[in-house]
Specification:
By secondary structure, the chain is mostly helical. Helices cover 65% and strands 4% of the residues. The protein has one domain. It has helices spanning 4-26, 31-38, 49-64, 74-89, 101-109, and strands spanning 47-48, 98-99.
């Protein structure tokens, strides 16, 4: 049986997936170009967890300046950022904690 806390977490995860997809799609350029920019032109062409975490942090800091997020605490924002990064990387990152463009593309398309 699912607890109220689990239900709230699942609901928040769904909201964050949609927010992340929408914010990625709102950025100018193709999905591949966005991926390359997030990788900081990495030599191996993979997106690291830390680089994506920086992207999400910037995204959430920008989003926190809007009226609809005034009531969120720094702690909640940090939890949201960690959840967004985990959604993309957990279960598909390689031993170097990186993902390929195809893995990133699949995440964005399947949200």
């Amino acid at each position: 049986m699912q607890t109220a806390n689990d239900a709230a977490t699942n609901s928040r995860a769904k909201q964050l997936r949609t927010l992340l997809r929408d914010k990625i799609n709102q950025q100018a350029g193709s999905l591949r170009r966005k991926f390359v920019m997030m990788t900081c032109d990495s030599i191996n062409g993979k997106l690291s967890r830390s680089a994506f975490a920086r992207f999400v942090k910037e995204l959430m800091n920008f989003d926190n300046s809007s009226n609809d997020t005034r009531s969120r605490t720094v702690s909640q924002t940090t939890k949201d950022e960690e959840m967004m990064v985990s959604m993309v990387f957990d279960g598909c990152a390689d031993k170097h904690d990186s993902i390929t463009y195809n893995q990133f593309h699949n995440f964005v398309q399947n949200v």
